[in-house]
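Handout, section 4.2: multi-component inputs.
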Amino acid sequence: MYNVIKAQCYQLLHSLSTYVVAVLGILFMILMCAIDDFDSNSMCGGYFAMMTNEAVSSALSMIVMVYTAFICAGDMKDKTINYEVLTGTGRSAVYFGRIITAVVVSIICHILFLVVPPMIVTAIYGWGGTIPVSDFVLRIVSALFPLLRLTMLYAFLSFIFKSSALVCAAGYVLTFLEVILSVMLQEFFPDTVVPMYVFSLNAITKLLVPANYGFGFEDGKDITVVKDLLQTSTAVHGMAAGLLGCVVFGILGCTVFKKKDMG
Amino acid sequence: MSETIMSVSGLTKQYMKNTVVKGVDFRIRKGMICGLVGPNGAGKTTIMKMLGGLVIPTEGSIDIFGETEEKGLAHSRSRMSFMIETPYAKQNMTAKENLEKLRLQKGLPDKGRIDEVLDIVGLSDTGKKTVKNFSLGMKQRLGIAGAMLTKPEIMVLDEPVNGLDPEGIVEIRELLLKLNREQHVTILISSHLLSELSLLCTDYLFIRHGEIVQDISAEELSRQCHEFYCISTDKNALLPAVLENKLGIKDFTVQKDGTVHIYEKTNDIRLISKTLFENGLIPTEIHMHDANLEEYYMKLVGDDDAEQNKRSDNKTDDKK
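Output:
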């Protein structure tokens, strides 16, 4: 399994597509910042993070989808994955080698797109009083688990469709169907918390993006302040639901991969 | 006789109602170069895929280096190399990068082996050219280079000379022969180029409709494909003794129906007839049999092709 991971990392680092997707993601981030037209007077790390998190979380799910499709389905179309089995690597090792690579890449993307930019802004303007650092950390850590659930879903789709393009198409449709469904559920059953724990993208947004803001006063300036700090119980629920989803999609993907003939 | 290092028994693969491999049995002995010969769709690639663990058999068992369970078989496969259908090639990587990825995947410590195998297959000067710009022949060579990376004990090669130019075919043939003779690598190879296989193989497995129709050594095949006299008399039981004692002919085989095939070169068919008469045997049949490998193949599996062509012709007629 370790060899599969090493080979996958080598391939990712030697593929132009890896860098193209990363650059496009960064360009998207810059574009978001430009659209938001941040006022440099109120700019600080916490404020920047809260203002960009919603747009970034949607983009992040797409970036993770593309990378997972590359890692899990990319080698299926040209059948180079067959050679992993042919060299004597067990199917479980081939499967988990890819899953672990995809998960690690998702974690790197999560950090790269959600943690690094606010850190850069903090280095220039300071963290500010918009949101406590502990709340930001809790949000980032808890939102990782639904993202990993999405990763596992895309991996599962990869082992079914065996084509990066098909996985991206199906993943895109499913993710946005999920968004529509979760919005409808919230509309009809406003008190239910089910969507957050069932639908990954909804959970990511809920955990990352505060719903209520107010105004505060800091260093003689009016600042935007997050009013609804994330409850630890909500974060734990989100993480547990994310983990459970990971396990379910992991088992489904493994079963599909182990039972199916490789063409 | 050398030890059996790979064998299959009752190997069957069924897709829905279509059985593509039907209870296949064969043994591969150490040092063999075994040719798997059959028309398209006969089941050659499926058998190789089952050996490689890509396709799960519906029935039957596979034994490689004494291992029969999936876990053990996976370990046995690490002592083998395969090139099945598509050669190992990531399109956006160079030949060297492809082999480096394969080296990491196989967990091989020796980086220098990559240059060695690239040199052997004649791809050492491809530099930064990515595989998508390679010719089919170059891709085949890269696949063979990948198969040679580990110094395997068994190589399973599916149409390895497909797409190669005549010069490339000769090089690959010589390479495989060298690997077999010097490093005692056992090879299971499938190809449509029968003339090519005849220069390489020590044994043949002829396959049709997913069944092994003949398992034959190259020596025996050569006998059957060369000129021989086919002789039958009214008293076939006495025929071998007369041939051996009266004519001094030793290179002959007695067939199930008593007919004798004489492989020794003799131009004096009159002398044979006369001697048979003198010993009370009346020849009922004496004729020269001349078959080459292609004819032999057609006889064994060729009807299938003809049948398929006929069927497709009929379909075309129906459509018309």
